[in-house]
Amino acid sequence: MLKKKKTDNPETPEVDQENIDNNAVQPEEQAEVNTPSAEDVLKEELALANDKYLRLFAEFDNFRRRTRTEREEARKMEGKDVITALLPVLDDFERALKATENATDVTSVREGVMLIQNKLKNTLTQKGLVPMESIGSEFDADIHEAITNIPAPTEDMKGKVIDEMEKGYYLNDKVIRFAKVIVGA
To answer: Where are the annotated segments for Disordered (predicted)?
Structure first.
């Protein structure tokens, strides 16, 4: 603010007062010209909000597309480690088939096939596969699938599994295949 100088001339204070009044009016006029109206402020805020919304929507859409692609890739490759572990067993079977073409001794071929079977079982066991032991156990509908009932050979075999038509398996403590069994009645 400007300080008023005291002078003996009475006209000077009036002029100073007019200058002060003019200076006071000018900033108000400038404020009216520079200050946007409430409508303009709201339009700017709306434009900013719309821009922010569009960017957020585009970012979410990209995220959704990227995760979908990653899930598809993971599904395609989820069995890769098991298949990679089984490839040597497949190679052994191919060698065994070639060996059977010229083999005259069946016992050596049988031993070779048994070795391949043991290798396959060990590989699957390492991946978490465990066979069910059903014969002689109590019938349980949660893990067994009864094919038929036959008369029990002894009284204590009633309601128990007498024979197993197809072996059941657990994978990491979950049933992945139910055992198909014959139950004593």
So the answer is: 1-38
